[in-house]
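Entry for the shared binder. Reason: the reviewer on the internal report wants the predicted structure included alongside the sequence.
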Amino acid sequence: MIQAELNGKLPEVENREDVLTSNVLGLMQYLPPRKGIFKILSELKDYSMNRNSLFDNLKAQNININDYDAVDYLFWENSPRHGEPDLILIIKSTKQQLKELMLCIEVKYFSGKSRSGEDDQLMDYCLSLENKDARKTYKNPKIKKFNGIFLGLIYLTYLSQYNSVREALKELHKKGRYGYESNFYELRWNDVTRVLSSSKSKNKYENKLIKDVVLLLKKKNFVDFEGFTDVTFSYKFDKHVFLEALR
């Protein structure tokens, strides 16, 4: 699919969020976590006053992400009551007895939240995954049986969606639920491009995968502004040409 999109063979799906999710996040599962998804997670900033990173928040809980070496990618898992989050990550360790970690990623391209108000989409996903009983509404047994630490929800968007997240937090406050500023994380597509562009591997096949994902992100113009192109030029005045032009 990614090759077809890179070569302009699928113009009808170029703006579809599910295809973007599959072509970028779907391919991350074929990379070791430290070379792919963990690099992306390093870009997360929460919505607290200090704008802490995910890794800072983990450190405060004595959790080191580098102690984990495996990730389950659960795409569009359904809960009849809560809907289908785009991606749920379950982060695990195969070498140590560590509590599993869970993150939810909601992906947007040009669209906004599908639900707002008292049924706010971001709030609903967050509450449905942090609660053991609510997780039982999901069909996937890995979600039903999860008994680790739910870290929060990542809102992956093209532009900053501060107001959308503040709306979700406001609805939580109405329910008497506070302190969720550290459970919502901002991530922009530009951040994904930047961090993957600097990701290197000794494995040529891993590098090829990363390269193709970065090419797709840049094709969609998910890049930071890097200044104006240098349009200066050298001009040598020739008085003979100038006088000839005046005749």
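Summary line for the report: The CA atoms of residues 109 and 182 lie 23 Å apart.
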